Amino acid sequence: MGLELRQQLKLSQQLVMTPQLQQAIRLLQLSRVDLLETVQQELMENPFLEEAAPQPETPAPSEQEDRPSDIREDAAYDGELARNADWEDYLGEFASTPKGAQSQEFDAGDDMTPFEGRYAEKPSLDGHLRWQLRLSTLTERQQEIGEAIIGNLSSVGYLKASVEELAAMTQATPDEVRAVLERVQQFDPVGVAARDASECLMVQIRNLGYERDPVLVSLVTEHLEDLEAKRYKPLLRKFKIDMADLHEYLELIQTLDPFPGASFGNSEPTYVSPDVYVYKSGKDFVIMLNDEGLPHLQLSELNDLPLSGSDKEMEYCAEKKRAASWLIKSLYQRQKTLYKVVESIVRHQRPFFEEGVTKLGPLILKEIAEDIGMHESTVSRITTNKFVATPHGIFELKFFFNSGLSVDDGSAVGSESVKALIKKFISEEDPKAPLSDEKLGEMLKEHLKVTIARRTVAKYRMALNIPSSSKRKEHF
Length: 476
What we know:
Blueprint: H1 19-29, H2 32-45, E1 49-51, H3 69-84, H4 87-91, H5 99-107, H6 115-118, H7 125-135, H8 140-151, H9 163-170, H10 174-184, H11 197-208, H12 214-222, H13 224-228, H14 233-239, H15 243-254, E2 276-281, E3 284-289, E4 297-299, H16 311-348, H17 350-355, H18 365-372, H19 376-382, E5 387-390, E6 393-396, E7 404-406, E8 412-414, H20 415-427, H21 437-448, H22 454-463, H23 469-472
Parallel strand pairs: 2-5
Antiparallel strand pairs: 1-4, 2-3, 5-6, 7-8
Helix pairs in contact: 1-16, 1-19, 7-8, 8-9, 8-10, 9-10, 11-12, 16-18, 18-19, 21-22
């Protein structure tokens, strides 16, 4: 059988995502911060895109024009008096500070203060320990070992390398490393560079002078897990003490810090700027998009100028024009889609906006997509990394989509509502007699008229990071 090449025509259709369409889809799922960065980047790169100038505000009529002439003359006289009066001569000896000091204070404003004098860098655990290391009486050789120890600490202050590894790094003996390690563990915060929680607490106990108490040492070195699980009865039998004595030991242990380096963490709080505000006005809710900080774009005046040049230059200009126009349309479409989605969410979750989280109902993306006439993927993208400010707090848009549980009367209740009630019931419980999962299920059935299995209650409780009733019980 011979092989040969042939040509044939074939007609087919396929969906091709143009770069403009890809940009529009990407803009939908950007958060507010990322959107601002993208717009600023486009403003710098595209010469046919510019920020629209703000509209000048109409100045309000002067209040002085409506006043009688005698009042205006009195105001002018008071202003002239304020400018010409020598208040230092008037106060005399009753001035709070001498003239020289006042003039000097007036001249030395914030502009004269160095930048580094007004803003201090947040201290880090690494820098704090190295500062103490340089001030210590350790030799240069020991300081090199100390540098290696400090360089192998975790964010909470625990030592991540073994003594043998540190000895290999610094070409020292394990005994030399242990000697320096004991010195570093006495630095502030005490207990830093420990290898586990037990060692960290023991360093602090020795620093306080309680290392001669055998019960305290045994509790810290051997029974931390029992204390965490609140298994107190075996400890009472082992050490032959009563509950009051154990309570004193627990109070002492709770004054110690198991994570000495956590206070020097580099993590900064994350501030959320809502994309949408929902206000209640009378019996209705008003939706306002947050446009603060988002520049209003328009085509540059270069768009109207006759351009001439090479084919590549003309092609570049035409491409930038289309990109600028498409970005403006995409931003408008993004805001329009966001408004429609939030408006539909308010309609479907009106009980939540009226009364709070306990009234949050079940909702899926398909319901919102059918309501506004868009695809589910579009709704999913526009609700990603978006936040809405409601009368009951700030929530992510994904928060309003949750599964439902069937109620006895045929309706459904949202899973988030169930979680909110579980959290509410546990916050109001008696610490010495906490509610079990079975009891929580009975209370939910009485409140919501819905039967929830004990394992489902346990799943929701664990999702809220709430421990079991045995760990929540307080014995003292």
